[in-house]
Design goal:
By secondary structure, this protein is an all-alpha fold. It has 2 domains: about 35 residues, no CATH class; about 25 residues. Helices cover about 55% and strands about 0% of the residues. The protein contains 2 helices and no strands. The longest helix is centred in the last third of the chain and has 22 residues. The radius of gyration is 18 Å and the shape is rod-shaped. It comes from Streptomyces cinerochromogenes. This is DUF2116 family Zn-ribbon domain-containing protein. Keywords: Membrane, Transmembrane, Transmembrane helix.
Length: about 70
């Protein structure tokens, strides 16, 4: 989930539009700290691909130890 899908409780507008001071402050805070840590730039398909690669690597390591 990215911050552009969040809705402000103060003005009921998307936070990404920054219509009120609360929206603008939260948008700035989320941009500075990076929403979801370092994964904020990845789309869901990229995350799935990353997960599949991780599972394959673990399976390969488990197979080599047997």
């Amino acid at each position: 989930m990215t911050y552009d899908r969040l809705v402000c409780a103060n003005c009921a507008a998307p936070v990404s539009e920054g219509r009120c001071p609360v929206c603008r402050a939260n948008r700035e805070r989320l941009q500075q700290q990076g929403f979801l840590g370092g994964l904020n730039g990845l789309n869901p398909m990229a995350l799935i691909a990353l997960l599949v690669m991780l599972i394959a690597a673990v399976a390969l390591l488990a197979h080599q130890t047997v």
